[in-house]
Amino acid sequence: MLIESSRRAYLAAMQVVQWLPRTELPFAAPSRPELLAPPAPLEPPVVEQPPAGAAVARAPERPKIERPKIEVPRPTAKAVSKPVAEPEAAPVAPKVVQAPPPRFALQLLRAGACLILVELPTGEPFQSRDPAYLLLKDMLRAAGLPDAPQIIGEPVRWPLLVRGNLDQGPEAARDFVQGFVLARLEDAPCTCLWLVGLPAVRFAGEAAAEDYYRELQVEGLGSAWCLPGLELLMDEPHRKADVWKAMRQLMARWKPNNE
Asked: Would you list the domain boundaries of the chain?
């Protein structure tokens, strides 16, 4: 139970100025009769002012603390992303690397029933006392052909142009050499075409060094005999035996009456 002084202290702390108990409180001060009287219906209740100079204890006001509003995001349905098909990369055309133009010089000669397409070792036309030309004359005599061959046209030099965008690769060189020889064959056919030197074998006969001493059938050009270059025969004299061996087997082509 609370005594009157304690009860008033609690009420003052709760800022309650006037109160009326529902029942009689023990140890309470007697009630004032004017508080028990019912208030007039139209008049507001009379609030007794404390006497002048009387300090009314009030509890200190607590500072208001504003709390920030925290918005909680509402759960929303997650949009299911559909896999996006990546566009197919456009095919990249392979870069065409053009082979460097080959370099060679060829001379076409006629000896009896044969045409000789021979590599010029120095790139210049044969001279009468050139060692390579003297070797060619010896080979023609051994084959039973005239040892003073007729020069046909100017030397074929490749590349044709020093500058420019003209394709001068290996395929272009092959087409040019074969076309040049074919044009001369149309003027005067031959029994056998000698291809002397790797450039002649490669670009006229479409063959390689492994085909030396062999006879090939070249489309449009007919029968062709592949031989090492004159300079190679001079540097490696043992190859002359292979030339002579193959020549004996083919000699009947351009010398039918040979025994």
From this structure: 104-254
Q: Which overall architecture, per CATH, does domain 104-254 show?
A: 3-Layer(aba) Sandwich (3.40)
pLDDT per position as a tens digit, 18-38 = 666 666 666 666 666 666 666
pLDDT the model gives residue 259 = 47
* pLDDT tens per residue, range 165-182: 677 889 999 999 999 999
Chain-wide mean pLDDT for the chain? 81
pLDDT digits (tens, 9 = 90+) for 198-223: 999 999 999 999 999 999 999 999 99
Q: Which residues pair with 224 in a beta bridge?
A: 193, 216
- Burial group, residue 44, by CB count within 10 angstroms (0-12, 13-18, 19+): exposed
